[in-house]
Amino acid sequence: MGKEINKKIVFEDGTEFLGTGFGSDVEKVMEIVFNTTMVGYQEIISNPVYTSKMMLMTYPLIGNCGIVDEDFEAKNTAIGGLIVREYNDSPSNFRYSKTLSELLEENNIPAIEGVDTRKMFKKLRDEGLGKVIITDINTPTNEAMDKIKNTIIERNLASKMASKRWYARTSKHTFSVLAIDCGLKKSEIKALNDRSCNVTIMPWTITDEEIRFINPDGVYITNGPGRAEEAQVVVDKVKNLIGKYPIGGTGLGCQIIALAYGATTSCMKLGHHGFNHPVKNLINGKIETTNQSHSYTIDKNSIKGTPLEITHINLLDDTIEGIACKEDRAVGVEFHPALKASGENISFYDQFISLMKEVKNA
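The structure assignment produced for this chain is given below.
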């Protein structure tokens, strides 16, 4: 017996995709984004980068691993909605504590399955990202389109990510790192802890006096949702830190560093969302396969006239994936760095550590 078709996704132009609802039974208007990753859906839906986004998973089967409490990237489930081809509500995983549908229902997140995700992704590929609504199957198309048109998408989401001060310590630490929280993932802090760093996590509202009191060996700007231009408070803060401390940043943090030096960013048609983006390291010529989740890119022309150099490029579209300023000991990458580098590649985190070592040994 087939599942009841009771929900639909409606695009701004009126295009409809029908399916079966699961998770929370609510109507929402959101910006749609996609991810091509084959595994790790729990890490994706809890990644703060995707806060309030409608997530389209291109891999056809989702839910078969359930939800594992230890595998969240953040304390809260980030996405606003979920679209999948086939949902499995009977996980086969001895570690799972609840199903994906149960998690979504607990967090008031609607989802839909049975959708032709291949056709939907082709539409996004050809036309670019935009707004959609998940609604009841009986909602008139014109009504759904009006709701999309009249809904204003919330901006400056990084300011909503700010956590209270907290600490992530490790035994026999070598460095003290201040992380300015714009929407961090647990794996970012783990990478620093694994490299003998005690990390103090502070909200983006931290004052210059508080930074001087902490007196870190380095400052790390976390990843997060939205556009760097919308986080001008953090950009201004980083401007004041340049040259005083080694600075590192990933994703949004990298873009914030670029803006602090006078560069700009622009919105990409599709963005980079998946685990298979080839990136070339221009310093050593090596190529890495990277995990990415950003919709904005640093403008190449805006780098000219700044002390920044481009260190990484995306081999698919030649966009900037990494920047550095040797004189000021600042470094950033657009992608999610591997926790441990493979082969002859040098992890971003090891590069950040080397900058702090330079200062300590000076």
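Interim note for the steering committee: The chain has two domains: 7-150, 157-361. The chain has a mean pLDDT of 93.
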